[in-house]
Structures are given as C-alpha cells and as structure tokens.
C-alpha cells in the first residue's frame, strides 16, 4: 500500500492526512477539528458519549502506541459495542480513530 | 541450586519449548547447576489443530489428530495435569486448581487462545451444533462432518466474527474445500457459499488478499467484507437463520460455520499484571520476553505479538525463545532475533494448495520457497497440497520434538521472492496490518 499525504484545512488549520483521512501527526489535533470532520461524516454534533469514546481512544493511543479495537473499546470504554455502532455508524474503530486524530487501528493477521 | 523452568500449556509451543530446553541442557550441561522442566496442561489430549480443517469433509478422523500430551515430551520432563488457577508474578509462583504450587525461576506462558463463544449474542443459542457450527474444536468439527453429510443444498455461510483468530487462512481454506466437497458430491449448483469477514478484503496483506479474492471469485464464493457479526439468530421454523451485523446488514444461512472470537486463557485475567484486556500476554515481538517481568517468556497464540496465531509462527518463535531463556539464565543480553516469520499452506481444494511466507516487514509475495527453485508461492499447486499433508508428520516427529527442520528456520528467506515494484514507494504494513 502506498501512502500519499494530502493537506486539508480543518478548523482553520492546515493538517496532513493520508488517503483515508487519518492524521499524519496526532499531536496537531484539536476538538474543533473533530467537530468539523463529524459534520462532514453526516453526524449532526458530537455528544457526550462520542467524546467519551474519542478521549478514551486518544488516551489509549498515547499510552499504548495504537488505538483500541472495537471489541476492546466495548470492554473498556464504558460504551457497549452496540452503542458504538450507533454513535459511529461507519464502523466505530476506524471512524472514531479518524475523528480522534489517531492512526487507523492495526487489525490483526 | 536447581533452576526451575515452568511451562504453562502442553500444546504446540509448550511441548516444543520443553523438548528444546531439555535437549540443550542435556547436551551442553549448564554453568548453573541442574535444570528442572515442568509442563502443565489441563488435559492429556494434544490436538493437531491444522487437522481440524479436514475433519468436516471426512478427510480426517478425530482419532488421527489427537495424541497423548505426555508422550510428546521427553521422559525427563515432568508433566502435571491440572487447571492453572493463576500466576503470582511477584512471588514467581504458579497456583494450580488442585492446590499444588509451582515456584519458578523462569516461566513460559504457552497456554494458547480460547474460543470466546459467549461474546457473540445467540451464537450458542438455538440452532447451535444443528445449523450453526464451528470447526475450531474437535467436537465442533466432528458435528459439522455429520451436518455437511446431510446437507443437500442451500446457503452455506462461513463467518469470522473478529480478529485475531488462530490460523487466519483456515476459514478461507474451509470455503475452498466446501466448493470442492459439494462439486465432488455433484450438488455444487445447489449450494450458495458466502464468506463474511470483518476485514476489508479476503485477507490482511494486500498482495495475498487480492490473490485470494480472485480465487474466491473463480470458485463462485461470495465475499462479504467489513461484516461485524453482532448476533446469530435462527428463523422461527428453526430451518435456517441469519447473521446480523452491527451495521444492520443481514446474511441469511441454512448452515453457518462460525469462527468465534478468541481470547487468551482465563487464568491470565486472574493473574495480576500478566495479560492485556483480552487476556493475551504483552510480549516483546523480537525477544519473546513478556513485558510483565524479565523472567517470563511467552510464545504462540497466547501472546499479543503482531504475527499470525499459527503453528509455524509458534515453531519459529520457539527457537528464539529457547535461546533467550538460556541467555537469561546465563545473565547475557537477549537476542532480538524473531523477525515475525510465518509460513502457511492454504488448501484450495481439488488436491491443490497455495503457500505463503512472510514476516513483520515483508508481506506474502509470489515467487518460490525457500529459494528460486522450490515450492511455488501464492500459486496453486499439487506440490503445496502434498506439503500441507506432510506437515502432520513433520509436526509430530520433528516440530514438537524441537528438531530443526531443514530449510525451514526462524529467519524468513528472501531469496526466491518477487519484490513488488517499485519498493521505494511502498510502506510496509508490518505484520499487524
Ligand atoms: C482449525 C485450525 C487450523 C489450523 N491450521 C494451521 C495451519 O495450517 N498451520 C499452522 O501453522 N497453524 C494452524 N493452526 C494454528 C495452530 O494450531 C496454533 O497456532 C498452535 O497450535 C498454537 O500453539 P500454542 O502452543 O500457542 O497453543 P496450543 O497448542 O493451543 O496449546 C495451549 C495449551 O494450553 C492449555 N491450557 C490453556 N489454558 C489452560 C489452563 N488454565 N490450565 C491448564 N492448561 C491450559 C490447553 O489445554 C492447550 O493444550 C490452526 C488452528 C486451528 C484451530
């Protein structure tokens, strides 16, 4: 897989993302960027549960070097897998990771 | 003082580690006194798990793939049959459910993965072992053989609930063999076969994924991707049912073959500091030392290393792990030698198989194994099928005994592989992609 980065403007800031929209540098992320990406994804607004998940994902990423899978999210974030799919209809692990500004979670082989 | 090495699990990894360690200390002695090796397992039935794939199709019988565990271990190795209750990593002691305590100098965690049936709603509810099966254990594979025998047509769905699973190619092999099996019975036109996977393609690595997707297509097997099974539900008449995805999609079936979620062994969760959220053991992917403590090592399906949960991986890891245990006892620096090497035959039906060979940095590529002349990689051939069948003999007689297998070592060979072009623009996905 080739990685091509593009620059996009989020909340008024130029940000580098890969072709799937994942941040190149998770540190440049701000909550306002998440709000903007969520709108583009068709979510009206991010509610408290969304933020629980996004904050949890960022914390896990900075502690462990990789974002959690949906199953681990369901076990540890306080939000059930069913609810995760309602909150992030395009697939929680991927969509939440993108909105949280962290890399796509590594699947397993 | 005697050094005590306790090995948890007497499956592939535990057995080959015990035999390798035993051989080393017998031949080379030890600068540090005698070594005692103890292996613990809950039962005395060692299953050749790759053989489970063949049982549903009547190509193997469960008695051919199960042998006593103790018979695979050198007689000087102590075998304890009991359930592990927990490990106290601070006290360097294993507690067994029968009450025995096993203090250790070095611990090896080789307790593999368990099938977490309960994590999928409805999976073991109505229809279980009648219309809904797994072939990932002996009972399931045997029951499925009877169900396939009675299957006269309809929708067969093969589903992987979530990764990681043991031998991630096995469900694909099941699809290919089902295609062959129904063709052989003359009813292939009456059977619709689908493969529903949580991945975004047939497999994880791009080149192999594309090759396997076209094989599925050639064989008329429908591929359903990014399908995350939330529930297995039977129809009211009990004749069939459907898989319901978390996103609302449904896959109807007359017969479902489900590979359930996998977790590490339960006792890992009861052993403070040893495991992660899924009870797998966080382990250095190159030295195979557990991150919990320097005298704990882990290999095989029990670890969280980003390599396939496969017997070949366990075998290659074993070489590095044993070397590092010896280094640890000798107070030497550990060797970061494991490169993620995996080597899998993929049975494709009609007496053929593919072979894939890869590691942390190199995805499965076409070419030949182990060098320019050898078994074809990523290409169907009869030779690969024979290789797969021969592997059972190799497993019992060389792999478990801890003997080196000529031409197949821990380091992945690069000779013979066709490099994709142009390499400079590719980012390797790591073995965890
Ligand atoms: C259907 C199928 C097909 C496969 N095909 C292939 C293939 O073609 N090629 C390949 O390379 N690999 C294949 N594999 C994978 C391979 O079998 C495993 O990766 C390998 O056996 C892992 O070895 P292990 O030692 O980690 O675990 P195991 O061999 O499973 O051993 C773990 C042991 O720990 C014991 N244990 C667990 N918990 C406890 C406890 N609390 N107390 C006491 N004992 C405990 C268990 O009884 C078990 O004996 C396949 C697997 C399956 C299921």
User: In one word, what is the shape of chain B?
Assistant: globular
Provide the helix percentage of chain A: 40-55%
| Helix content bin of chain B | 10-25%
Structural class, from helix and strand content of chain A?
Answer: mainly alpha
* Poorly predicted sequence stretches spanning 5 or more consecutive residues of chain A: none
Instruction: Using the CA coordinates, give the radius of gyration of chain B.
Output: 22 Å
Task: Give the largest chain-chain interface (CB within 8 Å).
Answer: A-B, 19 and 28 residues
> Helical segment tally of chain B?
7
β-strand number of chain B: 24
SSE-based structural type of chain B? alpha/beta
What is the CATH class name of the largest domain in chain B? Alpha Beta
Order of helices and strands of chain A: EEHHHHH
What does this structure look like?
The complex is a heterodimer of chains A (109) and B (433). In chain A, a hairpin with a 2-residue loop joins strand 1 and strand 2 (13-17). In chain A, 45% of the residues lie in helices and 9% in strands. The model of chain A has no long low-confidence stretch (mean pLDDT 89). The longest helix of chain A is centred in the middle third of the chain and has 17 residues, at 48-64. By secondary structure, chain A is mainly alpha-helical. Chain A has 5 helices and 2 strands, in the order E-E-H-H-H-H-H. Chain B is an alpha/beta fold. In chain B, 23% of the residues lie in helices and 25% in strands. Chain B is built from 7 helices and 24 strands. Chain B has helices at 12-28, 138-150, 170-184, 206-218, 266-270, 311-329, 382-399; strands at residues 3-8, 35-41, 45-47, 66-68, 78-81, 84-88, 93-96, 101-103, 106-109, 113-115, 132-133, 154-160, 191-196, 221-224, 229-234, 241-245, 250-253, 255-259, 262-264, 296-298, 342-349, 352-358, 367-370, 374-377. In chain B, the strands form 8 sheets. A 5-stranded parallel beta sheet of chain B has the order 5-2-1-9-20, with helices on one face. A 5-stranded parallel beta sheet of chain B has the order 11-18-12-13-14. In chain B, a hairpin with a 2-residue loop joins strand 21 and strand 22 (352-358). The relative contact order of chain B is 0.14. The interface between A and B is medium-sized, with 19 and 28 residues. The complex binds flavin-adenine dinucleotide. Flavin-adenine dinucleotide (FAD) binds at residues 9-14, 40-43, 49-50, 52-53, 83-84, 110-112, 135-136, 166-167, 170, 265, 267, 300-302, 309-312, 314, 344 of chain B.
């Amino acid at each position: 897989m080739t990685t091509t980065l593009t620059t996009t403007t989020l909340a008024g800031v130029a940000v580098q993302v890969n072709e799937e929209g994942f941040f190149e540098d998770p540190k440049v992320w701000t909550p306002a960027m998440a709000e903007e990406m969520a709108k583009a994804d068709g979510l009206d607004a991010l509610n408290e549960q969304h933020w629980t998940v996004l904050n949890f994902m960022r914390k896990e990423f900075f502690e462990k070097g990789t974002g959690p899978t949906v199953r681990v999210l369901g076990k540890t974030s306080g939000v059930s897998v069913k609810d995760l799919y309602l909150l992030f209809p395009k697939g929680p692990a991927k969509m939440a990771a993108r909105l949280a500004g962290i890399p796509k979670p590594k699947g397993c082989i | 003082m005697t050094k005590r090495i306790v090995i948890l699990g007497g499956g592939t990894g535990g057995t080959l580690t015990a035999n390798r360690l035993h051989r080393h200390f017998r031949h080379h002695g030890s600068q540090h006194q005698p070594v005692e090796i103890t292996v613990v397992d809950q039962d005395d039935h060692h299953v050749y798990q790759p053989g489970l794939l063949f049982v549903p199709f009547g190509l193997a019988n469960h008695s051919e793939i199960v042998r006593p565990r103790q018979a695979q271990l050198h007689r000087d190795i102590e075998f304890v049959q009991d359930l592990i209750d927990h490990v106290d990593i601070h006290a360097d002691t294993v507690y067994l459910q029968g009450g025995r305590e096993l203090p250790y100098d070095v611990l090896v965690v080789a307790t593999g993965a368990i099938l977490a049936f309960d994590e999928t709603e409805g999976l073991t509810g109505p229809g279980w072992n009648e219309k809904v099966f797994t072939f990932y254990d002996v009972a399931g594979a045997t029951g499925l053989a009877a169900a396939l025998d009675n299957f006269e047509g309809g929708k067969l769905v093969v589903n992987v609930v979530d990764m990681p699973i043991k031998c991630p190619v096995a469900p694909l092999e099941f699809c290919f063999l089902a295609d062959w099996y129904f063709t052989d019975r003359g009813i292939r036109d009456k059977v619709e076969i689908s493969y529903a996977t949580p991945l975004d393609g047939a497999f994880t690595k791009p080149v192999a994924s594309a090759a396997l997707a076209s094989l599925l297509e050639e064989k008329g097997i429908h591929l359903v991707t990014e399908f995350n099974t939330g529930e297995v539900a039977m129809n009211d008449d009990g004749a069939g049912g459907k898989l319901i995805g978390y996103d609302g999609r449904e896959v109807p079936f007359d017969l479902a073959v489900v590979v359930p979620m996998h977790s590490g062994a339960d006792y890992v969760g009861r052993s403070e500091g040893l495991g992660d959220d899924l009870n797998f053991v966080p382990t250095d992917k190159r030295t195979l030392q557990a991150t919990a403590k320097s005298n704990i090592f882990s290999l095989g399906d029990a670890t969280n290393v980003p390599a396939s949960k496969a017997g070949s991986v366990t075998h290659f890891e074993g070489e590095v792990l044993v070397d590092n245990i010896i280094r640890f006892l000798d107070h030497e620096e550990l060797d970061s030698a494991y490169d993620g090497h995996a080597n899998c035959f993929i049975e494709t039906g009609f007496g053929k198989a593919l072979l894939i060979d890869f590691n942390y940095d190199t995805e499965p590529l076409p070419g030949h194994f182990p060098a320019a002349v050898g078994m074809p990689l990523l290409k169907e051939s009869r030779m690969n099928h024979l290789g797969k069948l021969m592997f059972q003999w190799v497993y019992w007689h060389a792999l478990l005994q801890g003997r080196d297998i000529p031409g197949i070592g821990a380091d992945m060979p690069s000779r013979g592989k066709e490099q994709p072009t142009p390499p400079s623009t590719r980012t390797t996905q790591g073995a965890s992609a």
